[in-house]
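This is your field. Have a critical look at both lines of this record:
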Amino acid sequence: MAGGGGGGRSAASTGGRRGKFSSPVAIKKARIEIVPLIDVMFFLLAAFMMVSLSLQQSKTRPMELVDAKKAADDFKPDVLNIGVEKDGTVAIGTNVVDTAGLIQELTARYKQNPKTPVFITGDKAAPYRAVGGVLQQVRSARFTRVSFVTKEAEGRAN
C-alpha cells in the first residue's frame, strides 16, 4: 500500500491544471486599450496648436503696413525688428532710437551673431528716405539677411 492518501491524481500528473471546480470567475488577460489614448493625444495636439498660434505677436510698435500679394508673419526672438514710423522715427522692437543708437545696436548684434535676420517694418506713409537710410545702415553693419515686413492685401485674389 502506498502512503500519501487520497489515491487520486496529483497536480503534476494533470499538467499543472487545477481541478474541475477551480473558480467560477473566468480569468481574463489584461489588455491595454489604445483608442482612449489616441483621443487624448489628439486633444493635446489640438490644444498645443491653438496655444502656439496665439503666441505669434509682433515685437514692433503698431503701424500701418504696406500691402503685398504674399506675406507671412515670421517674428522670432532671435531676429532684429526695426520699425520706421510715419514721421520717420526709427524703433528697434518697441524702443525708439536715433541714428547713433541704431548703429550701436546693429554693431552689437552683428558681433553676437552675424547671421541674425533683420526685418525692416516701414509704415505705408513713412518717407522713403527714412526707410532707405535704415536699409543703408543695416547693410553697412554687414548684415546679409534683410527682409521687409508686409501684410497681405485685403480683397485681392492671388
Notes: Helices lie at 35-54, 99-112, 128-140.
